[in-house]
Design goal:
about 375 residues, alpha/beta, 2 domains, six-stranded parallel beta sheet, 13 helices, about 40% helix, binds nicotinamide-adenine-dinucleotide
Length: about 375
């Protein structure tokens, strides 16, 4: 760590130079107990937008690794979706149940505000809409607040994009988008999974699902007649599509050898533990729909909130729908070049960044009136 460039009101803000990242700030405040990091990966296409994650990381290194990984993922996600935004993310190292309070959030808000819009925050794991409303008291650079021109819950849009992602792998495998009789294994019945399952149900899929929250599993078994398996069994289910909708890192050299699916398409962030796992899937002939394309619906939805006219759901609906076409073109690029779909997606994102495709040409408008 190098430069300490601000030391006032008990704030200590240190810039950590990280290769390939525009700005990474370690933020502490002795008064409020704040310990956090803001990572701005890339703002070439527009300001860096990404959630504020509040999580009790074991140590600073874990938090730093997570925020770096997530902010880079946001750059790729934004680039592919052409939303005129860059990639950023922030984390507060705290237990959201025991340690989150107004003073902590307000002190973090002051740091976000000092970046003058280079980083725009949003809700994330451990940070609710109510928390973002508190943060809004000290900075306007936040999205997803409840007001007339706001974008509301992103999960519905993420679920629709995930559904279109599943259709894309079916199209590639069977030359047919129909879900009738197709076996889909869903890991996680949370905000996104609980919207995805009804979509799959109404399109005639045979659904197998799991959640570590047994009440959730029972509820969905009752409601949609789906088959429930134990959490540790879901990846071994023989199926057409495995849809990871819980946590990241689950596709790795160990789990790949147990997979019995033809394709993977789900909303979880950073599903591949390592870049090489994309190659392994390619070798095993399992079609992988890259997660940062599949789960772009939520970001697309938010991007319509910061337009001059404010939010209207039709725009993000139509743009989220295009996730299907983007994925089809990724499969084509991968096939033509005999590379993994994950590498094809990264190459396309980097190409768009390099040539400014989808670069923001308009301002950012915040419609909160608090
Ligand atoms: P969530 O926390 O609401 O739901 C996750 C669900 O997974 C929970 O019900 C949890 O009990 C379950 N779960 C956790 N570990 C599990 C395991 N080992 N096996 C089975 N179930 C398990 O989260 P969400 O908002 O639905 O997001 C799901 C994933 O999608 C996350 O990785 C998130 O980062 C990503 N994502 C979400 C959005 C969005 O709009 N919500 C957008 C982009 C990406």
């Amino acid at each position: 760590m190098t430069t300490i460039y601000q030391k006032q009101k008990n704030f200590e803000i240190e810039e950590i130079p990280i290769n390939g990242y525009e700005k990474v700030l370690k933020v502490t405040n002795k008064n409020t107990g704040l310990k956090g990091i803001i990572a701005i990966h890339n703002t070439f296409l527009g300001p860096a937008l990404g959630g504020i994650r509040i999580y009790p990381y074991k140590n600073f290194e874990d938090a730093l690794n997570d925020v770096l990984r997530l902010s880079k993922g946001m750059t790729y996600k934004s680039a592919i979706a052409e939303v005129g935004l860059g990639g950023g993310k922030s984390v507060i190292i705290a237990d959201p149940v025991k340690e989150k309070n107004e003073e902590l959030l307000l002190s973090f808000a002051e740091v976000i505000d000092s970046l003058e819009g280079k980083y725009i925050g949003a809700e994330d794991v451990g940070c609710s809409t109510e928390d973002v409303m508190i943060i809004r008291k000290k900075t306007k650079y936040v999205t997803g607040l409840p007001h007339a021109k706001s974008s509301g819950n992103p999960s519905v849009f993420t679920a629709w994009g995930t559904f279109r992602g599943i259709q894309s792998v079916l199209k590639k495998l069977f030359n047919d988008v129909s879900l009738k009789g197709k076996k889909i294994a869903v890991q996680g019945i949370g905000s996104v999974g609980s919207h995805l399952i009804p979509l799959l149900f109404w399109h005639g899929a045979e659904i197998i699902a799991t959640d570590i929250n047994r009440k959730k599993s029972e509820e969905f078994k009752q409601k949609y007649g789906i088959k429930i398996v134990e959490p540790e069994q879901i990846m071994e289910v023989e199926c057409d599509v495995f849809s990871p909708c819980a946590m990241g890192g689950i596709i790795n050299s160990n789990s790949i050898s147990t997979l019995k699916c033809k394709a993977i398409a789900g909303c979880a962030n950073n599903q591949l533990l390592d870049k090489s796992d994309g190659e392994l899937l390619h070798e095993k002939n399992i079609l992988f729909a890259p997660d940062f394309i599949v789960n772009g619906g939520g970001l697309i939805n938010v991007s319509f909130e910061i337009t001059k006219q404010g939010y209207h759901p039709k725009g993000p609906r139509d743009k989220t729908d295009k996730i299907f076409d983007i994925l089809m073109s990724i499969y084509e690029i991968a096939e033509k070049n005999d590379i993994s779909t994950s590498n094809a997606a990264i190459e396309l994102a980097e190409y768009k960044i390099k040539y400014g495709i989808g670069k923001r040409m308009t301002g950012i408008y915040f419609h909160h009136s608090f």
